[in-house]
Structure formats: structure tokens, C-alpha cells
Design goal:
This protein is of the alpha/beta class. About 45% of the residues lie in helices and about 5% in strands. It has a 5-stranded mixed β-sheet. Strand 3 and strand 4 form a beta hairpin. Helix 20 packs across helix 25. The radius of gyration is 37 Å and the shape is elongated. The protein starts with a helix and ends with a helix.
């Protein structure tokens, strides 16, 4: 069935299905030749070749007028007085060749309704001598002649979105006339110079370039190259080069538009810090969209500001050639911070490099740090985390990668924007586990960092970045466990870009303009965004509520009371003690892990000044154990894939094999150092004790069939570990001392796998109890079984690793204690019994857990069961998810009100400006104010109607 046919199911019989784009292409193919014939037929004139106005001989065809009509010379000139930038072509007896309106005598008069000024003298020198002349090399000149290479004298170069034109412009020369540049400006031309301009840009081309730059990332060079090709497809290099003028005039135009949008044409004062920037309409801003009434306080969690901090290393910038000669148009007036105060802060701030207690993210944050040709290695800043709007005056340049001093300044500036009275802010930053530790101390120690002491900063890490941290960072900093934040992911900021070759002021203006446009687009789409969030919150409340209720119903009341109290203590202590949030983790004291044992062995080797060949032997053996685990994981994946695999699956396996082979080669080469001269890296693998994996969840016969196809694969390669060489061969190689080292590391490996087995089996038990058995629909059952399958695959992997580990330990002549501790793992021991799912259930008095449930495990007390600990964590996390969705609904409803209030506030603001303009007799100012006021009024009305309709539908649905 065609995909489009599914859409038509359920429609009435009289309606047809929606056609795809391919359907339209198939319908067009038989018409292709006909279309081509008519396309070529347009090249010729009609047989009578008459002017459509006076019916005289038509010699000019306008390519931009509808239908490409023919004109005589006089009619062509008269019909284009108000369309001077149309392209025309002239009939030469054989075909139409390109021409221009200057050839038919078109002159643009800037006064007297387009007619010639009666006082105008024939003085073209008014526009001479203020700009450079075009220089062409002799070899660039064509050996042909034509109208496009013979510009009329006394013409100006006018750049329009249709191309580059040469036309004569005559200004009004009356005694009270405005200066020529202002006359041109009032007629929609932006002169490239102001005394005697020879080049002008139409407002249309400037608006088109700025929009192209925003939407398509088109540079000024590429845009002007396009205009040159539109002007002359054969000789674009002969079209006057006004690329530099476009760069400069676009800056001036951008500045004028920005000041106009923010009402500074209606004010006598000049903009101050951040006043040429829009901000989020849905974030709480006291005095703008938030009016606190009665006994309500801004200290309430509902008025929390959420910030996301991030860096962008695509917006790098080269050192300027003449920094002393740069002109700044909007320094610190938009989103980028003011340069002078920021430089003073950087000069005084100390670049403290603190030892990280989490994973090392410094390599990422120091991108481009060593590139000395860059004045800026990137930018960083702050945006609202819930809606992605950039905060005014909070974007900073990086000089040596992403340092704390840069982000400190950005955050302090963001916390000053429209936050009077707000006492709580949540910041999301990818290294907040380290960054936030001494943030307040850095602020207090600086003359240039300011933040009110009443503002409480709650650190968080975005959901994408937090998984690259240590496991403990997840519950301490993920948004799922932060009260009052709702449901957000805290990831944006990768969309900004600016060319490297711009001057520093120009780059800042481009970035400010991009961020203003980004915030404007988010503002006009806020209605749709909040409606979508509202629907997601409705669904999230329902789904998370059901999941929590299933867990809550089965939990004893006294335990729920205790768990709730522990949760409240953790949340209240999280600011001063992030480890308090470990309450959401499984609190199990583990047996020594492989990493702990490796660290102990390395420290012992260093303490006794071990020989060079033995200093890193523990790490070498540990690497071998990790390679074995990777081999097992790949073997299981190959077996699951089977023979009916897709090309994508086979490519993924091939890539994994390539990486694994590289690791094995490196490990084998290192073996020469640690195993001595008695070991030969080229020995036949058959000399080693080969042991093929026997997975516990699959039929060994099936695996043997699959493994035959991969005989030479790296996952089956036996690596030269002491356990594979055997005790006798280790003694022959004088490497007998490696046997106890591998035995110790194997114990740690076994402890790790058994710990992971217990966790996954308990998760599986809870899933069966709360999801599979409680599922009331097929969709819920499918989702539940998908989760169970994922957990079961993890169980299979760790069981296989343990089985392989124990077999290798047996080859190392273990002691009686080790044999007693690490027993064989049987298939039936991995089944989820009711003893795991509910140890207090009726009839379980004589059923006991398998041996591995009690191997060096301490849950904090003899009366605490495995099931209780895992159930507690599931209950707390389900409750946190339900609470976040409830908060999300509350926040979205408030944000709907705040958005409407913001639009109304803007409409009132522009309405006041309109009345002031009318009083001052400034009709243009009043008209623009009225248009802006209407825009915000319509946005407010549209949003209000959509929000009310959505909420009323939701209430009716809830009642049903």
C-alpha cells in the first residue's frame, strides 16, 4: 500500500487520498516536452510585434512585467518611471539581447512627484568625486560591444535585489530642498557616501540581504556575487564591484532598523546596556508581565528563572588588522557585553584551574585555545532554559577556550536583566558540578562581578551532557530531580555563526542581530510552543501519574512516609551538600571493583619501586580484561543479528571489529614487555587455552553455527593474558608474578559483574510487578515488554562476562576461599522468582535467593531487603517524574498568562508612543507606532484565544 493511502483511511468515500510529491512528478513527465517547447517559444516575439500601449513597433521586452510585454522606446520609458529596476531586452532582428532602462532614456527624479525639478540645472558634478572608480584589467575587458558594456554618462550605480543597475538620478534643486543624500534616502535609496554619492542601495536589497543572511547564512560576498550574475550571466566580473560598500551600508541599515524596532526613533535619549535586544515573553519579568497581587510573593517557586549556559566554538574570530581604527555602532547595547568593562574583568580575574572531581571536560572546553591567530576562539552566554531565548547583554567572547572567568561575567549580567524581586534561579551548564562550587567566592572577590546575595542559584546539568559525567552527577544535577523546574532538557546555543574575516564591531553587530531575530521568531511562535507544551504536560501527567500510582499502591504506608521524609531532606540539603541527592540512587556498599583493585596494585608497585617491565602491568592486565568484555559483547551482538542482517547492521559490526582489532594489536605488542623474551607475539593461537563463550540465554548449537562464519574475527581472538597462557607457560616466561595480579583483578571483575547482575535482575523484577502485570492495553504491554527485553539483554551480557571470568580464574589455580565465594552461575538462578519480586509474599517462606545475592553486600542493615531498596529508588524516581510534570502544567499555564501580559504591555507601550508622536506632529512616527501597537495587540488576542480554547477542550476531555 502506498504511504499516502493510510491517510485516506477513515475518510468519506467521495474524498481522494493526499497525493505525494512523487505522484505530481509522475503526472508531469508526459508533459515535459510540451513545457520545454513553450519555454523556448517565449524567446521569440509575437508575429505582429506591437507595443501593447500605442501599438507601434515593439522593440523592447520587459522580463519583469507580467507576461513579458513589448514596448516601443517611449512607452518603455514612460511605463517604467515607477519600476526603474526592471530588466529589459532589445530585439535586434534575430533575438532579444540584454539592455537596460538607461538606454531608453529613463531618468529618476527625486522630487515633484517624479517629474523634473523646474529649478534643476544640468549639473552632474553634484555626484562626482566622492567614491573610487572601478578598475578593470585590460585582459578582463571583452572583445565585444553591447549596451551592458557601454553605460551612459552621468549614471549612478544602483544596487537592487534584481541586480546592479546604472541609472541617472536627478535631485530637486529648489532653494528649500534637502541635501542630495537625504533626498535619496527618503525615496528608498541608501547612498554609499553622503557628499557626492555615486552608488546607492535600495531598501529592498538591504532587507533582502539581511533576511538571506539570517535564514540562509549567506555572506555579503556570496550575496553580491549572486547580484553580479543576475546582472550579467556572461561577464559578471565586469559588473561594478560594490561588495565592500554592501558590507558597510548593511551595517548602517541594520543599526537603523534595530533602533527603530526598539522605539529609539521616538525617544531623545540614546540606548543603554542591553536596550537594543528582545527577551522572552514567557519568562517572569516583574513589572512587565508579572504583577504580584495580595499576599503572593516573588519568592514562590513559580517565579524561578531558568538559565542555560553554553559555549559555541563556531563563532571564532581573527585578530583585526587595525583595531585602533574600528568603529563600534552598538557596543554592549544588544546581547554581546560591552567590551571595555569586560576586558577589565578579564585582566583582573585569576585563571584558576581546579582539579576536577568528575570526568575531565577541560579538553572540550579548551577548543581552539592554542590558536594564536584568533582574537576570539568562540562565544558563550546565557539563554532562558525553558524557551531558548537569549538573555540581553549576557554573551561573551572566549579568548583561550571556555574559562570560568568568561562564564562568570555572562551569568552575572544575565541575572541583572528584569529580575527585580526574583530570589531563585536554576542554571544549566555542562560542567556545573565543578563550575558552581566556588562561583559565589569568585563573585565576591571581583570588582566587576555583581549578583545580589538574595538570589539563590541552583546548579543543574542538561540531560544530554549529564550522561557524559560520573553516574553520581545524574541525580545531583539532572533536571528530573530539581524541584520547581518542570520538564526541560537544558540544551540550546549551537545555532550562532559569524564569518571569521569581519571586523570585531561588525561581528558583534551580526551576532546581536541573529540573536534578536532568534528571540523575535520564538516570540511570535510562543503561542504554538506553549500549546504544544500544554498538550505534552497533559499527557505527561496522565502517564507519570499512572506509573507512580502502580508503585504507590503496592508500597507499605510506613515506608512511603519514611521515603518522603528522606526525599524532603535531600531536596532541602542539595545546595550545601549535592551528595544528599544520592538518596535517589541505590545505596549499596559494593565489593572491591576492578578499578579499585587496579589502583591498589599500582600504588603497591610504586611503593616498592618495581622494575620498569612491572610498573604498569596491572593496567595492562586490566586492559586485557576490558578487551575480553568487549569481545563478549560483540559476540552476543553478532549472534542476535543472525544471518538476515541489514547493510547498516553489518557496517556497525565491521566498525566495532576494526576498533577491537586495533585494541588487540596494541595489547599484544605490550605483552612483549611484560611477559619477557620467552613469549613470542607471533605464536600460533592454538597453543593457547582457547575458550569460546557459552552464553546462558541461547542455544549453544545456534551459536556454533554463527561463529563458524566469523572464524578470523577479533571477537574470537585469544589475547595473551596469563590465564590464557596457563600457569606452566607463565613460569617458562618468567612471568609467574603476573598470576596473582590477574587473579586479584579477576576478583574485582567478578564483583563488578555480580553487582550489575543484581541491579538488572531487581530492575526486571520491579518492571514485572509495576509495568507488565499492570498493563491494561496492548500498547502499554508492548512498551513494558520492550523495557523488560532491554534489561534482559543486560542480564545476559553480565552473566556471560561472569561465566568467562570464572573460567579464567580456574586456570590460575584459585584458593579454596575463592572457589567458595565465586560459584558457577546457573541458568535457573537468573530467573525472577517471587523471592526477589516480593520476599514477604505468602508461600515464600521456604524459597531463598541464589548465592550471588549475598556476596559481600551491605544494604545498611540486616532487616533491609534487596527488593525494598530497589523499590524505594523506583518509587522516588517515579514520584519525581510525576512532580515535574505537575510543575510543568502549572508553569505552562502561568507562562500563557505572562505571554499575553507581555504582548499587552508592548501594545500599550507603542500606543503611548503613537499619542506622543501625534502631539509632536510627527506623522511617520505615529504611523509606525500604531502599526507596532496593532501587531502586539493581535499577538495578544491570538494567544489569548488559543490558550482559552485549548484549556476549555482539556476541561471537557477531563470531564468525560
Amino acid at each position: 500500500m502506498h504511504p499516502g493511502a493510510k491517510i485516506s483511511q477513515g475518510r468519506s468515500k467521495g474524498q481522494q487520498r493526499i497525493q505525494s510529491q512523487n505522484d505530481y512528478l509522475r503526472q508531469w513527465l508526459p508533459r515535459q516536452q510540451s513545457y520545454l517547447h513553450h519555454l523556448l517559444d517565449r524567446e521569440a516575439p509575437p508575429e505582429d510585434r506591437r507595443c501593447i500601449v500605442c501599438e507601434q513597433d515593439g522593440v523592447y521586452k520587459c522580463q519583469d512585467c507580467l507576461g513579458e510585454p513589448l514596448y516601443c522606446t517611449g512607452c518603455c520609458r514612460s511605463q517604467h518611471h515607477h519600476n526603474p529596476f526592471h530588466w529589459i531586452s532589445q530585439w535586434n532582428g534575430q533575438f532579444f539581447e540584454q539592455s537596460c532602462l538607461a538606454q531608453v532614456g529613463l531618468v529618476i527624479h527625486l522630487g515633484h512627484d517624479g517629474k523634473q525639478c523646474p529649478a534643476l540645472a544640468d549639473r552632474w558634478d553634484l555626484f562626482e568625486g566622492d567614491e573610487h572608480k572601478d578598475q578593470l584589467e585590460p585582459e578582463d575587458l571583452p572583445f565585444v560591444s553591447g549596451p551592458e558594456f557601454q553605460p551612459k554618462e552621468n549614471t549612478m550605480v544602483i544596487i537592487d535585489k534584481s541586480g546592479v543597475h546604472r541609472l541617472e538620478i536627478r535631485c530637486c534643486d529648489c532653494p528649500n530642498a534637502l541635501s542630495p543624500d537625504i533626498q535619496m534616502f527618503r525615496h528608498g535609496f541608501f547612498p554609499a557616501s553622503f557628499n557626492r554619492p555615486k552608488t546607492a542601495f535600495t531598501f529592498r536589497v538591504l532587507d533582502d540581504f539581511l533576511l538571506d543572511n539570517l535564514e540562509c547564512g549567506t555572506s555579503a560576498m556570496n550575496y553580491y556575487s549572486k547580484l553580479r550574475r543576475m546582472t550579467s550571466s556572461m561577464f559578471p566580473h565586469l559588473v561594478p564591484d560594490r561588495y565592500r560598500e554592501l558590507m558597510r551600508v548593511a551595517r548602517q541599515w541594520r543599526q537603523l532598523k534595530t533602533m527603530k524596532w526598539h522605539g529609539f526613533g521616538h525617544r531623545s535619549d540614546i540606548p543603554s546596556t542591553g536596550e537594543l535586544a528582545l527577551f522572552c515573553p514567557a519568562c517572569p519579568q516583574p513589572g512587565i508581565n508579572v504583577l504580584v497581587a495580595g499576599d503572593e510573593s516573588l519568592d514562590d517557586w513559580k517565579y524561578t528563572r531558568s538559565f542555560v549556559m553554553d559555549g559555541n566554538f563556531k563563532a571564532e574570530h581573527l585578530h583585526p588588522i587595525k583595531p585602533f581604527d574600528e568603529v563600534w555602532l552598538s557596543d554592549g547595547l544588544g546581547f554581546m557585553v560591552g567590551k571595555d568593562r569586560y576586558k577589565m574583568h578579564l585582566a583582573e580575574a585569576a585563571d584558576m584551574v581546579e582539579k576536577s572531581s568528575c570526568n575531565n571536560h577541560r579538553a572540550v572546553n579548551q577548543a581552539n585555545a592554542a590558536r594564536h591567530k584568533l582574537e576570539s576562539t568562540g562565544i558563550g552566554g546565557v539563554a532562558c532554559a525553558r524557551h531558548g531565548c537569549f538573555v540581553p547583554h549576557s554573551m561573551v567572547d572566549f579568548q583561550k577556550g571556555e574559562r570560568q572567568m568568561n562564564m562568570d561575567y555572562a551569568l552575572c549580567e544575565a541575572a541583572r536583566h528584569n529580575m527585580e524581586g526574583i530570589s531563585r534561579a536554576v542554571t544549566f551548564y555542562d560542567i556545573n558540578c565543578q563550575y558552581n562550587k566556588h562561583f559565589r567566592a569568585r563573585v565576591d572577590a571581583s570588582r566587576f562581578l555583581e549578583m545580589t546575595q538574595d538570589l539563590t542559584i541552583i546548579p543543574g546539568i542538561g540531560l544530554w551532557h549529564v550522561h557524559g559525567h560520573q553516574d553520581s552527577c545524574y541525580v545531583r544535577y539532572a533536571s528530573n530531580f530539581i524541584d520547581g523546574i518542570g520538564r526541560i532538557d537544558g540544551e540550546i546555543m549551537e545555532t550562532l555563526w559569524a564569518p571569521r574575516g569581519m571586523s570585531s564591531p561588525h561581528r558583534q553587530e551580526c551576532l546581536d542581530y541573529q540573536m534578536n531575530d532568534s528571540n523575535f521568531c520564538k516570540m511570535i511562535r510562543m503561542k504554538r510552543t506553549l500549546c504544544r507544551k500544554y498538550k505534552l504536560a497533559m499527557n505527561g501527567i496522565t502517564e507519570s501519574g499512572k506509573a507512580f500510582d502502580r508503585l504507590d499502591e503496592a508500597a507499605p504506608a510506613h515506608l512511603k512516609t519514611e521515603w518522603s521524609a528522606r526525599e524532603r531532606r535531600a531536596q532541602s540539603s542539595r545546595l550545601n551538600d549535592p551528595e544528599a541527592m544520592d538518596e535517589y540512587e541505590i545505596n549499596i556498599k559494593k565489593a572491591p571493583s576492578r578499578k579499585e583493585i587496579e589502583l591498589r596494585l599500582l600504588e603497591e608497585g610504586s611503593a616498592r619501586n618495581a622494575a620498569p617491565s612491572r610498573r604498569s602491568v596491572a593496567t595492562w592486565i586490566s586492559t586485557g580484561l576490558a578487551i575480553e568484555e568487549a569481545q563478549i559483547a560483540l559476540l552476543i551482538e553478532v549472534r542476535r543479528m543472525g544471518k538476515r542482517s541489514t547493510e547498516t547492521q553489518r557496517l556497525d559490526i565491521a566498525r566495532q571489529r576494526d576498533r577491537l582489532q586495533g585494541q588487540i594489536d596494541g595489547f599484544t605488542q605490550s605483552a612483549l614487555t611484560h611477559l619477557g623474551e620467552g613469549f613470542d607475539a607471533d605464536d600460533d593461537p592454538d597453543d593457547l587455552n582457547v575458550d569460546i563463550l557459552d552464553d546462558l540465554d541461547d542455544d549453544p548449537a545456534d551459536f556454533s553455527k554463527t561463529s563458524d562464519a566469523w572464524t578470523n574475527s577479533p571477537e574470537l581472538t585469544v589475547i595473551p593474558l596469563p590465564s590464557n597462557l596457563g600457569v606452566d607457560r607463565c613460569r617458562h616466561c618468567m612471568a609467574e608474578d603476573l598470576i596473582p595480579l590477574e587473579m586479584s583483578l579477576r576478583e574485582g571483575q567478578a564483583n563488578d559483574t555480580l553487582h550489575n547482575l543484581r541491579i538488572h535482575l531487581c530492575n526486571k523484577a520491579v518492571l514485572f510487578r509495576t509495568s507488565v502485570r499492570q498493563a491494561k492495553s496492548q500498547a502499554l504491554k508492548t512498551r513494558a515488554w520492550s523495557q523488560v527485553t532491554s534489561v534482559q539483554q543486560a542480564v545476559s551480557l553480565h552473566a556471560s562476562i561472569y561465566t568467562k571470568t570464572r573460567k579464567q580464574m580456574m586456570k590460575l589455580e584459585p584458593g579454596q576461599d575463592q572457589l567458595q565465594k565465586f560459584k558457577p552461575l546457573l541458568r535457573e538462578q537468573l530467573k525472577i522468582s517471587t523471592a526477589v519480586g516480593d520476599p514477604n509474599a505468602r508461600g515464600q517462606r521456604n524459597e531463598s535467593l541464589a548465592w550471588f545475592w549475598s556476596v559481600e553486600v551491605d544494604l545498611g542493615g540486616p532487616d533491609q531487603s534487596w527488593n525494598e531498596e530497589f523499590y524505594r529508588v523506583h518509587w522516588l524516581r517515579a514520584k519525581a517524574l510525576r512532580d515535574r510534570w505537575k510543575e510543568e502544567m502549572t508553569l505552562v499555564q502561568l507562562e500563557m498568562d505572562w505571554t499575553c501580559h507581555y504582548f499587552s504591555w508592548r501594545a500599550t507601550q507603542w500606543g503611548d508612543r503613537m499619542r506622543e508622536s501625534l502631539e509632536k506632529r510627527l506623522p511617520g512616527h505615529a504611523c509606525y507606532s500604531g502599526r507596532q501597537s496593532q501587531m502586539y495587540s493581535l499577538l495578544a488576542q491570538d494567544a489569548q484565544a488559543a490558550f482559552q480554547d485549548l484549556q476549555s477542550v482539556s476541561i471537557e476531555t477531563g470531564d468525560e
